[in-house]
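A reminder from the course coordinator: this example appears on the midterm review sheet, so study it carefully.

Given structure:
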């Protein structure tokens, strides 16, 4: 990197990446002060979450959830989804990829939006679009996220498969689909594709189950739910190759050419109209000019709990640091980061807990919006035991008055992982209809290290699904 900054414009804080994490970092770093911030974005302000991930995916999933509830409620008549209406509603949540409202928000916060690709070209110095040079007085924050990874399977890349952006921004519904992968994106994509009318859907999963990072029962219930909708699940599957004689770059969310044939070991070759690849993410650090010594072996930019890299002026928040690839965790890290930058700029100590991102360590909540939903926080039983922690577990089916009133076919399961020594919760997992709203109570208990005896006095309202907390405590008496 060069270090000539004579012609550089100056800001107090420069943030590379205009997604939710970048927006939060910039806002918190200058809040209530005269400090200035620049937010650099080469695509859309609002980032992956707003246009290609969280918002469109949940907009696609919710109609199917409502339809499922209606079909399993006596006295309610339900037909089928209108795919074009569902897609139109999704587009309303992504503002048809118009980020003007996000830019207006940034302007109102005193953040200047700069369009273009950014590259670090010196200490606290960034070049945008190859020519515009800007310099940070205090800090540079990298918030560039990740991109979808495509495996090196023979013929797969040449087939121009759908990645996550295509699946969330689909414009036409293929009749036959193969989903490669068994994680969150794969399960959610399979759910809405089936809801929208895909006739044949095959999941090609290398592992022995879905959602391998969760408690095993969660993946089992999701697999049963997908099979009930008509999915074919191939576990322990070795995808040996893909052939697509007529691939075409028809645009995001459109079928990319003619049919493709998949060769999976132990299976007869089968043909699909589109392939969805959901096999992980790659950090977006290539071309950023980051000192290679700061990157780990996978290309992520690790930080300490102040979100700082070994170069004290350089910070990283969100997926790009590899700590927890979730929007809400990126925003959490960004709040910590912004507060740290502000405190350092004003010469204040970093003594308070708000200046340290502790939740990244075993206290991360996540919801998989599949059918059924999976909501979890903290660590699993296996993770606890592998770490040498003496734990006990409590499991019950979710069968309470609130769940039976929720829908006629309600089914679900819950599990707690408890530290015997401190009698506190280390992890909790819920799988079932609408269990997403259960996880925050568990998160508070995990983060607050609330003794389980104290939870007897957190009385669940009747009749709600939260009554399962009482059943879990009773199972442990």
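Designed residues:
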């Amino acid at each position: 990197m060069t270090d000539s900054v004579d012609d550089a414009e100056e800001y107090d804080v420069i943030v590379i990446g205009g997604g939710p994490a970048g927006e939060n970092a910039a806002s918190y770093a200058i809040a209530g002060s005269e400090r200035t911030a620049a937010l650099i974005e080469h695509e859309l302000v609002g980032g992956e979450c707003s246009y290609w991930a969280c918002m469109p995916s949940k907009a696609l999933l919710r109609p199917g959830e409502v339809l499922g509830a209606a079909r399993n409620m006596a006295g309610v008549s339900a037909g089928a989804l209108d795919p074009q209406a569902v897609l139109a509603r999704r587009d309303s949540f992504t503002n048809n990829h118009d980020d003007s409202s996000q830019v207006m928000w940034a302007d109102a916060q005193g953040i200047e939006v700069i369009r273009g690709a950014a590259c670090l070209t010196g200490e606290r110095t960034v070049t945008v679009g190859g020519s515009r040079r800007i310099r940070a007085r205090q800090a540079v924050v990298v918030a560039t996220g990740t991109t979808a990874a495509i495996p090196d399977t023979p013929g797969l890349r040449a087939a121009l498969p759908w990645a996550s952006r295509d699946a969330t921004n689909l414009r036409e519904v293929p009749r036959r689909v193969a989903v490669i992968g068994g994680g969150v994106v794969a399960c959610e994509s399979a759910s809405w594709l089936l809801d929208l009318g895909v006739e044949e859907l095959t999941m090609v999963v290398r592992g022995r189950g879905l959602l391998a990072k969760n408690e095993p029962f969660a993946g089992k219930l999701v697999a049963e739910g997908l099979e009930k909708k008509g999915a074919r699940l191939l576990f322990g599957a070795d995808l040996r190759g893909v052939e697509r004689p007529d691939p075409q770059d028809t645009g995001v969310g459109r079928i990319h050419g003619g049919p493709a044939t998949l060769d999976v070991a132990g299976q007869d070759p089968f043909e699909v109209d589109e392939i969805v690849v959901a096999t992980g993410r790659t950090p977006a650090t290539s071309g950023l000019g980051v000192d290679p010594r700061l990157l780990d072996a996978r290309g992520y930019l690790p930080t300490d709990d102040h979100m700082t890299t070994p170069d004290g002026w350089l910070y990283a928040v969100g997926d790009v640091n590899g700590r927890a690839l979730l929007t809400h965790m990126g925003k959490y890290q960004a709040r910590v980061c912004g507060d740290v930058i502000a405190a350092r700029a004003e010469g204040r100590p970093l003594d308070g807990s708000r200046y340290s991102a502790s939740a990244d360590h075993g206290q991360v909540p996540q919801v998989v919006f599949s059918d059924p939903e999976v909501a979890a926080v903290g660590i699993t039983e296996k993770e606890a035991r592998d770490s040498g922690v003496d734990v006990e577990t409590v499991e019950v089916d979710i069968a309470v008055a609130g769940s039976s009133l929720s829908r006629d076919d309600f089914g679900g399961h819950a599990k707690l992982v408890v530290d015997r020594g401190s009698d506190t919760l280390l992890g909790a997992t819920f799988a079932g209809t609408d269990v997403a709203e259960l996880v925050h109570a568990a998160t508070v208990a995990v983060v607050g290290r609330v003794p389980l005896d104290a939870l007897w006095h957190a009385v669940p309202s009747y009749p709600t699904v939260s009554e399962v907390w009482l059943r879990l405590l009773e199972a442990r008496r």
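The chain has a mean pLDDT of 96. The chain has three domains: 9-46+99-147+283-355, 157-279, 372-475.
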